[in-house]
Amino acid sequence: MKLHPYIGRFAPSPTGPLHLGSLVAAMASYLDAKVHGGTWLVRVEDVDRDRNVAGADQHILSSLQRCGMQWDGDVTWQLQRQDLYEAALRQLGENIYPCACSRREIADSQLRLGQAGQPNLVYPGTCRQGLAPGRTARALRLRTPQQPHCIIRFHDRFAGDISQDITAEVGDFVIRRADGFWAYQLAVVVDDGAQGITDIVRGADLLDSTPRQIFLQQLLGLPQPRYLHVPVVVNADGEKLSKQTGAQAFDTGAPAESLLGSALLPAARLLGLAIQAETIDAFWRAAVPAWDAVLRAHGESPHRP
């Protein structure tokens, strides 16, 4: 059987410098590409212009290089790919409808339907049959099948078999936001398809989004990548380490070799890699077989062309 070439990616948002949590995701995706003898791409997900921080993209790219991670090919930016998202929107056609609901109105509807307090609130379908008189469209939503329900099943290389009833657990979801920006779900699917991504390695906080992305892949006729979601890094309060929870940059401009002890080795430990190294080059020489061993412990036999 001929195996398709491995193409992976790391797709950071330029909302600030990389922190330890994002380094863990970058390291896992980089090592997975190396173990499979594949290609590792970097894509800057800057589609949310309101959250972008000037210069953050270049800081991220510099940090990756200073950590010894070099991508293949050219870096891509989502803001340069707007035509692709427009084309996908046209392809989705009647599966899309305008929605006039504000967050407050959706919350009120959910309260009336008895959904308040549930972890995953479902859009009630207020605008599914058209906008009420005098209402102005805010966002665009994607219809999910009602009868039968849209149930997506897939295998995650770490989490195992996953199933989600999108109709019951998510409902019709946004693909273009009220502020006019493209929603993450659409942009990431279009980008992964355009770049031929075969394997997606990222944090487990995105595991719940994967069924929606697979549904979009099916509608757009795109191949489904393999998925691997690594555990997210949390702070002392048990919150996901992120810029919103005060995560600090690991790269403060000190000599690159200092990143070995302050960033690379801690990130490796969080991935379950037992590595001892005195230089960055030695770290990566040890990290690739260590990741290979982690995959084999999960029942995989990584393929090297």
From TrEMBL:
<feature type="short sequence motif" description="'HIGH' region">
    <location>
        <begin position="12"/>
        <end position="22"/>
    </location>
</feature>
<keyword id="KW-0067">ATP-binding</keyword>
<protein>
    <recommendedName>
        <fullName>Glutamyl-Q tRNA(Asp) synthetase</fullName>
        <ecNumber>6.1.1.-</ecNumber>
    </recommendedName>
</protein>
<dbReference type="InterPro" id="IPR000924">
    <property type="entry name" value="Glu/Gln-tRNA-synth"/>
</dbReference>
<feature type="binding site">
    <location>
        <position position="127"/>
    </location>
    <ligand>
        <name>Zn(2+)</name>
    </ligand>
</feature>
<feature type="short sequence motif" description="'KMSKS' region">
    <location>
        <begin position="240"/>
        <end position="244"/>
    </location>
</feature>
<feature type="binding site">
    <location>
        <begin position="9"/>
        <end position="13"/>
    </location>
    <ligand>
        <name>L-glutamate</name>
    </ligand>
</feature>
<dbReference type="GO" id="GO:0008270">
    <property type="term" value="F:zinc ion binding"/>
</dbReference>
<keyword id="KW-0030">Aminoacyl-tRNA synthetase</keyword>
<feature type="binding site">
    <location>
        <position position="123"/>
    </location>
    <ligand>
        <name>Zn(2+)</name>
    </ligand>
</feature>
<keyword id="KW-0862">Zinc</keyword>
<dbReference type="GO" id="GO:0005524">
    <property type="term" value="F:ATP binding"/>
</dbReference>
<dbReference type="InterPro" id="IPR022380">
    <property type="entry name" value="Glu-Q_tRNA(Asp)_Synthase"/>
</dbReference>
<feature type="binding site">
    <location>
        <position position="101"/>
    </location>
    <ligand>
        <name>Zn(2+)</name>
    </ligand>
</feature>
<comment type="similarity">
    <text>Belongs to the class-I aminoacyl-tRNA synthetase family. GluQ subfamily.</text>
</comment>
<keyword id="KW-0479">Metal-binding</keyword>
<keyword id="KW-0547">Nucleotide-binding</keyword>
<dbReference type="InterPro" id="IPR014729">
    <property type="entry name" value="Rossmann-like_a/b/a_fold"/>
</dbReference>
<feature type="binding site">
    <location>
        <position position="202"/>
    </location>
    <ligand>
        <name>L-glutamate</name>
    </ligand>
</feature>
<comment type="function">
    <text>Catalyzes the tRNA-independent activation of glutamate in presence of ATP and the subsequent transfer of glutamate onto a tRNA(Asp). Glutamate is transferred on the 2-amino-5-(4,5-dihydroxy-2-cyclopenten-1-yl) moiety of the queuosine in the wobble position of the QUC anticodon.</text>
</comment>
<dbReference type="InterPro" id="IPR049940">
    <property type="entry name" value="GluQ/Sye"/>
</dbReference>
<dbReference type="InterPro" id="IPR020058">
    <property type="entry name" value="Glu/Gln-tRNA-synth_Ib_cat-dom"/>
</dbReference>
<feature type="binding site">
    <location>
        <position position="184"/>
    </location>
    <ligand>
        <name>L-glutamate</name>
    </ligand>
</feature>
<keyword id="KW-0648">Protein biosynthesis</keyword>
<dbReference type="Pfam" id="PF00749">
    <property type="entry name" value="tRNA-synt_1c"/>
</dbReference>
<keyword id="KW-0436">Ligase</keyword>
<feature type="binding site">
    <location>
        <position position="243"/>
    </location>
    <ligand>
        <name>ATP</name>
    </ligand>
</feature>
<feature type="binding site">
    <location>
        <position position="99"/>
    </location>
    <ligand>
        <name>Zn(2+)</name>
    </ligand>
</feature>
<feature type="domain" description="Glutamyl/glutaminyl-tRNA synthetase class Ib catalytic">
    <location>
        <begin position="9"/>
        <end position="277"/>
    </location>
</feature>
<dbReference type="GO" id="GO:0006400">
    <property type="term" value="P:tRNA modification"/>
</dbReference>
<feature type="binding site">
    <location>
        <position position="45"/>
    </location>
    <ligand>
        <name>L-glutamate</name>
    </ligand>
</feature>
<dbReference type="GO" id="GO:0005829">
    <property type="term" value="C:cytosol"/>
</dbReference>
<dbReference type="GO" id="GO:0004818">
    <property type="term" value="F:glutamate-tRNA ligase activity"/>
</dbReference>
<dbReference type="GO" id="GO:0006424">
    <property type="term" value="P:glutamyl-tRNA aminoacylation"/>
</dbReference>
